[in-house]
Structures are given as C-alpha cells and as structure tokens.
Amino acid sequence: MIRWRWAWFSLSMVILVVAWPASQRLSFDRSLPRMFAAEDPTRKDFERLQSKFGVSDLIVFAYRDEKLWAKDGSGLERLQRIRERIEATPGVAVAMDLSKIDQMLGQLDQPFAVFGKLFGGNKTHVLLDDRNAIANAFKTIFEGQTHSRDGALVAIACLLKPADQSPVTTKETLSQLRVLADSLSSQAAQKGMLVGQPVMVEEGFDEIEQDGRRLSLVSTLCLSLLILVGFRSLRWAIISIAVVQWSLIVTRGLLSWLAWDLTMVSSMLASIVTVIGVATTMHWMLGYQQAMKSGSAPEEALRRSMVSLRRPIAWACITDAIGFASLSFAKVGPVQDYGWMMAIASLVVLVGIFVLVPAIALMPLAPKRFEKWVGLSFELSAIPGDESLRRCLLWILRQVTLSHRAVAIVAILICGLAAWGSLRLTVETDFIKNFRSDAPLVVAYRAVETELGGAGVWDVVVPAPKVLTQSYLDQVAALEAGLMALEVPGS
Asked: Which of 281, 382, 383, 447 has the fewest CB atoms within 10 Å of its CB?
C-alpha cells in the first residue's frame, strides 16, 4: 500500500469522479408507508385503501382574523378571496370553508334575498344573521372545523389531487400555498399556517434532511478541529476530512446505484460516517506518532504503524459493519435500510483509509515558511498534557486494581439501577416533538390542535356485502357511533 501509494491514490480519485454524479442523485424518501416493512399489515392495509379508493391528502390552511364575523361581511369576503386563490393553486382539488357554507345557505335563502335587494338592501351574508336558526346551527356544527370557538382562528380544508392526476408535485403545491400564507396582510389577517399529513411529511422531512447535512458539517469540523488543536497537525486534519468526504461520496454513489433512498432514520448517515472515519484515522495517526518518536523517518514510521495497526483498523470497521447489519432483523423498513447502508459505509471507510492515508501522509504539502506563517505544522506534534493524562489514567488503573471488589459492587448497583430505569422508558409517538418547540410547523400544529378540531384524518375501512341490507347499515351506524364515542382529540 505504501510502495504503490500513488497508484492507489489515483484509483481512489477515479472512483471519486465516477461516484460523484450518482451521489448527487441520491434522493430522500418521504413516503410514510415506507416507515413500515413491506410485509407489515398496516402498510398493506394502507396500500389497499389507496388502490381501491385513490385516497387524497387533506391539509388545513389556517389564519387568524379577529374581524371574521364583522357585520359588514368583510371577514367572510376576505375568507372567500383566500379560498378562491387556494382553489386556483395547481394540485388543489377543492377547498371547503365558511364562505362556501355561507353561499350554500344564501341559495336556500335566495327568495328573501331578492326581496331585500328590491327594497334597496345590500348583499347579505346569512351566517351573519343572528336571528337565522339554520345559520346558527351550521355555525355550531362546524365550530372546531372551519373556525375556532371565539372565531379568531379560521380554517380552510383543502383536498389535494391524487399524485397521478396532479400537474405538479405535492411539494410544489405546498410551496405555492406557503407563499400565499406568508403574503396575507398583517392588517387584515396574521400570517397563515399550513398543517396536515402532507405538510408534516414534506416540511418535516425537509427539516430532518437539513439537520442531517448540518450535523455532518458540524461533526466533521469539530473532529478536525480537535486534531488540529490537539496535535497541531494540518496534514492529519486534511487526512481525516479527505477520508470522510471520499467515503461519503462513494457510499452515496453506491446507494444510488442500488436504487436505495435515504429515510428519516438514515438521514444521520453522514454524521455516523464522520465519526467512524475520524476515529479510525486517529488510531493510525497515534501509531504513526509513536513510530516517529522512536526516530523513524516518515515513510518508515508509516510502514511500521500500518504493520501494527492494519488488523485492528480492519476489524474495527468490519465489526462496525456487522453491528449495523444486525439492524436488518428489525421490523421497521427504514431501520433495516439504515443498517445495510451503514454496513456498506463502514467497509467503504476501511477502503478509503488504506487508499488515501499513505499518499497524503507522505505528500509534500507546503514549504516551511507557510507553516511559520499560519503558526501550525503539517507534521504531528506532542499532545498537550499527554504525560499528565497518562499519569492520571495509570492512577485510576491502580485504584481499580486495588479496590476491585468495591468497584465490582458499585458497577453491579449502577447496572441494576439502569435496568430498573430502562423498564420505565416510554415510546414518544408525537411526530412534532421531533422538532424545536418554536419551529413554524410545531406552532401551527399547536394552534390547530388546541383551538380547532385537529388536523388528522383516520380512514376506517369495513367489508361490505355485494347487496346492501338494512341490518348491515345498522351495523355500520353502530360502528360509527362507537367511533364517535371514543375519547380521541378532535373527533
């Protein structure tokens, strides 16, 4: 590996160039059914529902308007204009709100409206007539659905077109609706909010994807800075970054060629690869440093450290791969995919270390005057506080050896306490708790969930006979009554 280091380095650059275009095509799977394994009954039921009924996505467009019930009708007319703009958005099938209900009641009340116009009356809104019993009943029925109890929060239910019938993607539709929500005048209505499963999937997964990239960048910079400050070596900081980035690009290229997609679980792929790559590189770096201390030349020090550390490095990456591959026994589809992805990434890191480190470690990078100018060296320096750290660790080792019985008893007690605590753990099923409490998505959901009837929709599918009978309809009615009696928020 050292003798032919430039050949291996050239081969690694060819692999990098080939893998780069494919790595850019790796997509992020935002499908909720993919959260379940292919044979999972829940996924099968949902896919059967989609194939039979062509389920469309429902979102709620909400905004605050203190003048919704203004007697001059300005609030309802403003709501109608917003709803019409929503219905004109590509990808939206239909929208339902109070203004539509008001128009329907106006048609029922049309004869009286005609007489009102004959006597010089203005255009009226039936929902604003407190003496109209039907209008009051409708306002009560739709309270919590189209408007909050105090009328300050207004909601428009938007049904999106199925993906195979829409001229644009769901992401593009939501983007246009988000522009509309942000453009609402602060004088007439506050900034709008979007909630619903499509919003949670698209915007929530956007946040997760961005967090994954941010975590990868921060972890790479922090670990490289640790090498730079701790060892004061620009060369090995460059080596760690090169190994990590090469491994990421090649891994993403392989995943793209295998037609795999990143999911919410595997979005942390880059950060874990960073930890594996930098940690493994540091093993070799420490061995190289020890060889240099004994007076060996750089190439001889690299050879001696490779001979002594090649097996530990190889087995460390292989055991990482085996550990991640064990996740393939999980029942959740994305967890299975993540396990295989990380297994591949661990082996790619192993290859990257052996093809990149020899060439970069022995490559002349800059003249001495550059090192003096930046105040850092490309070669390894002694670790600050290394001797003190060694003495501290040896003291701990002696104390543990002398008091091994007491240490064992304390360890058993801690393990027992940890086991007891693990039994008290609960699983968090609230998806919005994956985000910061001040995130726009969380703020919108809190408003809709507390002031309206919620933004979730459940589909209950029951088998039906070929010929409907009265007894069957009675059973369905009883089922509906039972569902309505459940203590479900927003039901």
From this structure: 382
Question: DSSP characters for 117-154?
Answer: HHTTPPP--GGG-TT-HHHHHHHHHTBTTTB-TTS-EE
**pLDDT value for 356:** 92
How far from chain centre, in Å, is Cα 296? Answer: 49
pLDDT of residue 64: 84
Strands 153-160, 193-196: pairing is: unpaired
Q: How many CA atoms lie within 13 A of 302 on its CB side?
A: 20
Q: Give how many domains the chain has, as a whole number.
A: 1
The count of residues in the chain is 491
CA 350 to chain centre: 28
Round to the nearest angstrom and report the end-to-end CA distance of the chain.
67
CA proximity to 287, closest of 387, 191, 203, 361: 361
CATH number at 297 reads 1.20.1640.10
Q: How far is CA 281 from the centre of its chain?
A: 29
The set of residues, in sequence order, having a beta carbon less than 8 Å from that of 89 and lying 6+ positions away, is 173, 176, 177, 180
pLDDT at residue number 447: 81
Contact 127, 102 (CB under 8 A): yes
| Rounded-to-integer distance, Cα 314 and Cα 291, Å | 20
The reply to whether 418 falls in a domain is: no
Residue whose structure tokens are 């394994």: 37
The residue to which tokens 């003495």 are assigned:
391
HSE toward the beta carbon, residue 413, CA cutoff 13 A = 6
Q: CB of 447 within 8 A of CB of 144?
A: no
What Cα–Cα distance (Å) separates residue 260 from each residue in 10, 39, 135, 249, 305? 28, 18, 54, 15, 37
In the predicted model, residues of the chain with pLDDT beneath 50 are: 114-122, 187-189, 490-491
Amino acid at 227: I
Within 8 A by CB and 6+ apart from 320, the residues are 276, 342, 343, 346
Check: CB of residue 288 under 8 Å from CB of residue 353: no
Helix (H) / strand (E) element for 94: namely strand 92-96
Sign of the dihedral through C-alpha 399, 402, 405, 408 = positive
pLDDT on residue 378: 52
> How many whole angstroms separate alpha carbon 107 and alpha carbon 330?
58
User: What is the Cα–Cα distance from 220 to 243, expressed in whole angstroms?
Assistant: 11
CA 150 to centroid of chain Cα atoms: 35
Which residue type, as a one-letter code, is found at position 87? E
Structure confidence at residue 488 (pLDDT): 55
To the nearest 10 degrees (0 to 180), the angle between helices 98-108 and 110-118 is 80
